[in-house]
Automatic annotation (TrEMBL), chain A:
Source domain of life: Eukaryota
Classification via InterPro entries: Ribosomal_bL28 (IPR026569), Ribosomal_bL28/bL31-like_sf (IPR034704)
Source species of the chain: Leptidea sinapis
Protein name listed in UniProt: Large ribosomal subunit protein bL28m
UniProt key word Ribosomal protein: yes
One GO cellular component, as annotated: mitochondrial large ribosomal subunit
Lineage: Eukaryota, Metazoa, Ecdysozoa, Arthropoda, Hexapoda
Family: Belongs to the bacterial ribosomal protein bL28 family.
GO terms assigned for molecular function: structural constituent of ribosome
Region (Disordered): 259-281
Keyword set, alphabetical order: Ribonucleoprotein, Ribosomal protein
From TrEMBL, chain B:
One GO term of the biological process aspect: translation
Keyword Translocase listed: no
GO CC terms of this entry: ribonucleoprotein complex; ribosome
UniProt keyword annotation of Ribonucleoprotein present: yes
Single GO MF descriptor: structural constituent of ribosome
The organism's place on the tree of life at top rank: Eukaryota
All copies of domain Ribosomal protein L9, residue ranges: 73-119
Transmembrane segments: none
Family: Belongs to the bacterial ribosomal protein bL9 family.
Keyword line: Ribonucleoprotein, Ribosomal protein
Name this protein carries in UniProt: Large ribosomal subunit protein bL9m
Length: 281, 259
């Protein structure tokens, strides 16, 4: 009996002491599931291994001792400078670490920085060319996916690692959702483009597209704005004015109805003499 | 959180069956590939890795794939490209060239299965008006039509202009033109006649038995001795001349003179 009671309390304790996630605090509790889905895709999903070769399988055998050991791929920590969000680096990032250049020398710090170049990418859905900072890997990925739009739409947010790419992806998705209005001058082309890319729309609802590609502060601002718009305070002066107008109208209606109470209204006026002295009044 | 994580993986895989195939195919990277010199110790199953020490940040370069030669890329031409090919041709190019010079300007499309199918069916259709016997034909036409062919003939010995004179003159400026492809004007040209010096005419050359191109010709009277030689004229090829045969005047006017 006692043991079961302890168990119960432990469970309650774990509930109360559980670390609150960012979605459990303040206005963030009102974020819709659509944004949570994007957040999972962006921040919680494990990005693809770019700078190391992950070991395959679950177990491996030590060659010397024959011991069976689990395989644990610990990814290399990456640095994301501000510039990464303004370009499309294709998942590459800066690596900070050490080099051991000689057996008898002390390690030296080193940054491995990807080779960046500025080039043009062509978005078919948006019907534009864009000048962006990319790496060779980006161009290769674009070619492998047969186009920039396919690359953006097929790659999860965690692998894009770029705010620019996410915003473009959102724009492309909303463009598709609206049926490619940029091709309104050429209905045949419009249809072709829509047919080519419409498969991607199946994995998003309109609400999810609306909430896609927003940073945390942007999402919070959006919630706040929606909330503010929903219960916008009406100025009291407007309320009172309305009430007054209604009252006056009612009074007017009442006045129209014939009533013989003129004497009552004039009784106190007749007593007053505006030109008389104060004492007389 | 764990549930979220699994769910999202599932969603991503569900997006498109193509995506999954794509990700499996792409093992090639284009970047630095590093390896830890001293790998960190194993951690508890399902737990967090231990705090890493400095030695776990010492990396060895496994490969820098930026300097590795990339494989050629196949693209389909969506229009005739001078020196490359006709519409619907699948050409293999260096990836950088293919991207910058063909895909971005819209001269070519990616060789996707759908595009291959689309341009294959187009082949059976009647050929588009702009197709040549070889991708290099427009270049040759350009070169020949810009040429002012100087035919050097004797100033002293009598002669009659023949095909082999024209062929030789072509060879002197670097064009190997077989005699059977050259069409001379029907009228006979005989000399020496110094009035021909200020006249011009054209011959027609047939390329690959299909395309015709007109070449502007001028006769120059050549002599061995200094006294007999005609005076030297600067930039004589830029000077517009009278047509030898009035019926050729119209076409000669259209031929561009070298700047």
């Amino acid at each position: 009996m006692a043991s079961s009671r302890i168990q119960v309390t432990a469970r309650q304790l774990s509930k109360t002491l559980k670390k609150k996630s960012r979605f459990d605090i303040g206005i963030a509790t009102e974020l819709p599931a659509a944004y949570k889905k994007f957040w999972r895709e962006w921040k919680l999903l494990k990005p693809a291994a770019v700078h190391f070769i992950p070991q395959e399988g679950k177990w491996k055998r030590d060659e010397l001792t024959g011991e069976t050991l689990p395989i644990q791929n610990i990814p290399l920590p990456l640095k994301h400078p501000a510039e990464i969000y303004e370009g499309i680096w294709g998942g590459e990032a800066v690596i900070k670490g050490f080099q051991k250049r000689d057996m008898h020398r002390r390690r030296v710090p080193h940054y491995w920085v990807p080779v960046l170049k500025r080039t043009v990418v062509k978005s078919e859905v948006l019907n534009t060319h864009l000048s962006v900072t990319v790496t060779d890997r980006t161009i290769k990925l674009i070619n492998d996916h047969y186009g920039f739009d396919h690359y953006l739409l097929k790659t999860p947010a965690c692998d894009l690692v770029s705010m620019l790419a996410l915003k473009l992806k959102k724009q492309i998705l909303s463009e598709l959702m609206n049926g490619c209005p940029r091709y309104a001058h050429d209905p045949q082309k419009q249809k072709e483009i829509y047919e080519e890319y419409k498969t991607y729309l199946s994995s998003y609802t309109p609400e999810e597209i609306d909430w896609y590609g927003l940073t945390w502060p942007e999402a919070l601002n959006k919630v706040a704005k929606i909330k503010e718009a929903a219960n916008k305070p009406i100025p009291l002066k407007n309320v009172y004015r309305k009430n007054l107008v209604e009252k006056l109208k009612e009074a007017a209606i009442e006045a129209k109805t014939p009533t013989d109470d003129m004497s009552s209204t004039t009784s106190w006026l007749s007593k007053m003499n505006p030109f008389g002295k104060k004492d007389e009044a | 959180m764990v549930n979220y994580y699994l769910f999202s993986i599932f969603v991503i895989e569900m997006v498109d069956s193509k995506l999954f195939v794509m990700v499996v195919e792409m093992n090639e990277n284009n970047t630095f590939i590093l390896k830890r010199k001293w790998p960190p110790p194993l951690h508890k199953k399902g737990g967090k890795p231990d705090k890493m020490k400095s030695r776990h940040f010492v990396y060895d370069l496994v490969e820098d794939t930026n300097v590795k030669k990339q494989q050629d890329m196949k693209v389909i031409l969506s229009q005739f490209v001078d020196g490359v090919g006709n519409v619907g041709d699948v050409v293999s190019l260096r990836p950088n060239t293919a991207y910058r010079k063909f895909l971005l300007p819209g001269l070519a499309v990616y060789a996707t299965p759908e595009n291959l199918e689309k341009y294959k069916s187009d082949e059976n259709k009647p050929k588009v008006e702009k197709s040549y016997s070889s991708p290099y034909v427009p270049r040759t036409i350009g070169c020949l039509s810009r040429l002012v062919l100087q035919i050097s003939m004797s100033k002293t010995t009598p002669w009659k202009l023949e095909l082999w004179h024209i062929r030789t003159s072509f060879r002197k400026v670097g064009f190997v033109v077989p005699e059977e492809t050259i069409t001379m004007p029907p009228q006979e040209i005989q000399g020496p006649d110094l009035s021909l010096q200020e006249k011009e005419f054209y011959v027609t050359v047939k390329i690959n038995n299909r395309e015709d191109v007109n070449v502007r010709c001028r006769i120059y009277h050549w002599a061995t001795t200094a006294l007999e030689k005609l005076p030297w004229v600067a930039f004589h090829w830029k000077k517009p001349l009278e047509p030898l045969f009035p019926e050729q005047a119209e076409i000669l006017e259209k031929l561009p003179l070298p700047e």
